[in-house]
Design brief:
The structure is a single chain. This protein is α+β, with helices and mostly antiparallel strands. It is 39% helix and 21% strand. The chain has two domains: 243 residues, 2-Layer Sandwich (BirA Bifunctional Protein, domain 2); 94 residues, 3-Layer(aba) Sandwich (Rossmann fold), CATH 3.40.50. It has an eight-stranded mixed beta sheet with strand order 1-5-6-11-10-9-7-8. The longest helix is centred in the first third of the chain and has 20 residues. Bound molecules: adenosine-5'-triphosphate and magnesium ion (MG). Adenosine-5'-triphosphate (ATP) binds next to strand 6, strand 10, strand 11 and helix 12.
């Protein structure tokens, strides 16, 4: 009896070769970009203790309230969570290994994150982020650096229609004052709040302002603005950031309702948004989180960072790209007979050692069938070896893509000939 076909998990995508090649090309651009700003990689495990995210992301956030993949390790009873974001784990690792001892760090990571939300275009249950964290810097200059470097990546990728929104969340005392005013205000308008709004009124009133519920927009619009509660230092910091943005000619829009979903932010917060992805408009978001390191048990140190949604950025980038494979195979080896097979096998290795990408035909078959495979492989050349070629220690080199005649090349001259043909014209 035929077995039932198994399927992947909803909201968790396979990346098939054509797409995976594009991801690799994208990751290469991203790595070069991060290197050009002096950021270094850090890799942390997918699984962390659940408590890390409850404390690090915040109890009253969407992520912790309803989006985490958490479970008990039945082998030892530990409470574990598949990372829903990277900052908490990065800070945990940096603290655990004392990387901030007398030093600051510019770090990045790239990889899968897991959130149990409703899958739709640009929103998945396994998705990928590039996270960038600057740890140990307190000034507005690093906030501006983080923002300006995003702009450079959009330029490198040729993305248009990406705009910057920025706000300041002030410090804890300023937020507490604003929070009081906000709660008092929202209490007066309880009748307009939806269930989420009522629930968050006291636990996380800032989040109420983040609601997209049309019925609440008027009340949200008129709510007390955090910006009006900022003291001198917070204002100065914010001015410092925007001054550098103007210096770098990065246009920004101050959005007083930008609050971010995670608890740990203070002062600068920002989002890069686009009109090209429908409802999933934010492709990159971040800000300053000066209290997080201490709240996770580290020695107090200032910090700022951002996370970029790779699927969303990829979607925008691929819009302007041709489909099909990215990488080009240099040669495909076909042969007839045992001696030809041995010669082809050996030549394949020689060519790879010289830096070419070569596929050796496996599985035999007629010349015609093998040539079909060679064509479908996308290779630039077929290297054809029959009895004749073996007898004369040569191969037939057949251009597969640009036309031109098949030519007989001596085995000893093959590497140089291929180099001349493939790289010769580029030099
Ligand atoms: P959203 O408001 O879209 O839910 P968020 O505030 O939860 O975003 P962050 O935690 O700040 O998002 O993550 C940073 C970026 O990661 C987002 O701006 C987005 O580009 C991307 N992202 C977040 N959640 C998902 C998801 N489920 N699928 C794909 N990308 C995501
Ligand atoms: Mg979210």
């Amino acid at each position: 009896m035929a077995q039932q076909k198994l399927q992947g998990i909803r909201g968790m995508n396979d990346l098939l070769p054509d797409e995976a090649e594009r991801w690799e090309a994208f990751e290469e651009i991203v790595r070069d970009w991060l290197k050009s700003y002096g950021y270094r990689p850090i890799r942390t495990p997918i699984l962390e203790p659940t408590a890390l995210f409850v404390r690090g992301v915040g109890e009253h956030t969407d992520i912790v309230e309803k989006e985490m993949y958490s479970f008990e390790d039945r082998l030892n009873g530990e409470q574990l969570t598949m990372r829903p974001e990277g900052t908490a784990a990065c800070v945990r690792a940096v603290t655990e290994h004392n990387l901030l001892y007398g030093a600051s760090q510019r770090l990045y990571y790239m990889g899968p994150m897991f959130r149990h939300e409703r899958p739709q275009k640009g929103r998945y249950r396994q998705f990928h982020q590039v996270g960038v964290e600057a740890l140990g810097f307190s000034g507005p200059d690093v906030d501006a650096e983080l923002i300006v470097m995003c702009r450079r990546l959009w330029d490198d990728l040729g993305l248009e229609d990406v705009t910057l929104e920025i706000n300041s969340l002030g410090d804890a005392a300023e937020r507490a004052q604003h929070r009081q005013a906000l709660i008092a205000y929202l209490e007066q308008h309880q009748d307009v709040l939806d269930d989420d709004g009522k629930r968050r009124l006291h636990s996380n009133p800032l989040r109420v302002l983040d609601s997209k519920n049309p019925a609440m927009q008027e009340v949200i619009e008129a709510a007390p603005k955090l910006m009006d509660f900022l003291g001198e230092e917070s204002l100065e910091h914010f001015e410092g950031v925007t001054a550098l943005l103007r210096e770098a000619a990065v246009p920004y829009r101050i959005n007083p309702r930008l609050v971010r979903g995670l608890d740990y932010y203070n002062r600068t917060v920002f989002e890069w948004v686009t009109t090209r992805l429908g409802a999933q408009a934010t492709i990159c978001a971040g800000g300053r989180y000066d209290s997080l390191i201490e709240s996770l048990g580290g020695k107090p140190a200032p910090a700022a960072g951002f996370a970029m949604g790779m699927e969303r950025v990829m979607m925008m980038w691929m819009d302007g790209q041709e489909s099909g494979p990215v990488s080009r195979l240099d040669a495909y080896v076909v042969y007839q007979g045992d001696a030809a097979q041995r010669l082809g096998f050996r030549l394949g290795e020689e060519l790879r050692a010289a830096g070419f990408s070569v596929v050796f035909h496996c599985g035999g078959g007629s010349f015609k069938a093998q040539m079909k495979k060679a064509d479908a492989s996308g290779a630039t050349y077929a290297i054809v070896i029959g009895e004749d070629e073996v007898a004369t220690q040569s191969v037939s080199l057949k251009p597969l893509r640009e036309g031109g005649e098949q030519e007989r090349i001596a085995v000893d001259a093959l590497t140089d000939e291929l180099a001349e043909r493939i790289y010769g014209s580029e030099e």
